[in-house]
Write a structure and sequence with these properties.
Elements (H helix, E strand, L loop, with lengths): L1 H15 L4 H11 L5 H16 L1 H8 L10 H16 L4 H14 L6 H13 L1 H8 L3 H5 L3 H10 L4 H7 L7 E4 L6 H10 L4 E3 L4 E4 L16 E3 L7 H5 L6 E5 L5 H9 L3 E6 L2 H14 L4 E4 L14 E7 L13 H5 L4 H17 L2 E11 L8 H10 L3 E3 L14 E2 L8 E8 L1
Length: about 425
């Protein structure tokens, strides 16, 4: 446990200095090639857990410190240990003892007494400290104060649920490839192998407990893919029929690309500005037995990659703040800045303007983000419609979208936060 605490504290330190959590963990796995199985899972849980609950953890630590810490590494170690004490079943005495021993591994032996005092003080005063932590928005919700204020202003009737949902563990949801197997048949196969799961909307299946994909029956044979239930709404909404020419812009890693191809025999172009991500997309299509034309290019500059033939359908899953998927990427909360939504909105506007010209008359355009910030969603679409009288907004299925949220899916136990706007060119 001591080594796990030290490694996790190092990852948290680098993430809060500006590094992406997924990239930082990938670097750690390369450096620690022998770290596998349960020890690796422990480190990952500690990193995700600390970043998920960072605001509350800091609010618990602050009253226990008599003076500012000189060594910020100790703050990260305390965060990791407090996460274990608050949110795991690890034995408290073991957590404290290993954190004290970790000071030596971190070459901070003089701090052993401080770490021991802080953690044991927390165990003695837990109820009092928990109550005090809720006095600030950051301590109560574990988001930066500006983020809480924005969600409260934009979703006054839902803000607490949105914030709390973003701090829970994400479900593992599958999309059944109906070209290979029906959803009912796949659910039966899961039952036969002792895997508990249930059906959601469309082709979605949610597992009771997450598991490695290689242990899923039929995964390597292309029967299923991992994809959140909210993301699975994109392909059916676009309503692409066989024979149509379709563009999936910003396509990698290819979940929506594959879903489109599973639903109809279309001619699909998958565009992304990252060659590495396109390699992942091609691997996913190969596993599923599907094919598409892949292009590496910027959606904002179609003159560089477009062949001049108009598309019948365009899917634009644009770059965004990711504010709807913080439960999967808790580092987003602490890496984003208040000005970022406006910067993303400008990129989104550029993509919309560029791609709209590529859509044939009568064609449909689906705008998608995994954000809950209105600047990137409702406000973006309102501005676009004001500029384009040839864009006709289409009604979304009332069973899938709450009327008062107009295309916005808020995060809950079964769904990530997503936004959809469907337009037809007239």
């Amino acid at each position: 446990m001591r080594d796990a605490q030290v490694l996790a504290a190092g990852v948290v330190e680098r993430v809060l200095a500006g590094r992406n959590l997924d990239l930082e963990l990938a670097d750690l796995w390369r450096r620690q090639a022998g770290l596998t199985g349960a020890p690796r899972a422990l480190v990952q849980d500690l990193c995700y857990g600390v970043l998920r609950h960072l605001g509350a953890l800091d609010a618990l630590i602050a009253p226990l410190l008599n003076k500012p810490l000189r060594d910020e590494r100790l703050r990260h170690l305390l965060r990791v240990a407090l996460y274990q004490l608050e949110h795991t079943r690890a034995a408290p005495h073991a957590v404290v003892d290993h954190a004290v021993a970790a000071c030596i591994a971190m070459r901070a032996a003089p701090a052993k007494g401080l770490v021991n005092a802080v953690l044991r003080g927390f165990l003695r005063r837990r109820a009092e400290l928990r109550a005090g932590a809720t006095h600030s928005d950051t301590g109560r919700y574990s988001y930066p104060a500006w983020w809480v204020e924005k969600i409260r202003a934009q979703y006054p009737a839902h803000f607490a649920e949105v914030l709390d949902a973003g701090n829970r563990h994400a479900p593992m949801t599958l999309r059944v490839n109906t070209r290979r197997i029906t959803r009912e048949a796949y659910l039966a196969r899961l039952t036969e192998t002792g895997i508990a799961a249930s059906a959601l909307e469309m082709q979605a299946v949610v597992l009771d407990k997450p598991m490695p994909v290689e242990k899923l029956p039929g995964f390597l044979d292309g029967q299923v893919s991992v994809q959140d239930a909210s993301a699975q709404r994109a392909a059916p909404l676009l309503d692409a029929a066989s024979g149509m020419r379709v563009l999936d812009a910003c396509a990698a890693p290819g979940g929506k690309t594959a879903h489109l191809l599973e639903l109809a025999d279309i001619t699909l172009t998958a565009l992304d500005d990252s060659a590495d991500r396109l390699t992942r997309l091609q691997a996913n299509l190969s596993r599923l037995g599907l094919a598409a034309t892949t292009l590496c290019g910027d959606a904002r500059t179609p003159a560089v990659w477009w062949d001049g033939a108009l598309f019948d359908r365009i899917l634009a899953d644009v770059p965004c703040s990711g504010s709807g998927v913080t439960r999967r990427h808790p580092d987003i909360k602490w890496l984003r800045r208040p000005s970022d939504a406006a910067k993303f909105a400008q990129t989104q506007e550029d993509i919309l303007e560029a791609l709209w010209r590529l859509l044939a008359a009568g064609g449909k355009f689906l705008y998608v983000t995994c954000s809950v910030f209105r600047e990137e969603n409702h406000h973006q679409m309102a501005r676009f419609l004001a500029r384009h009288p040839d864009a006709q907004p289409q009604l979304l299925p009332p069973s899938d979208f709450a009327p008062d949220l107009a295309g916005q899916i808020l995060p809950d136990d079964r769904h990530d936060g997503f936004y959809y706007a469907l337009l037809q060119k007239i």
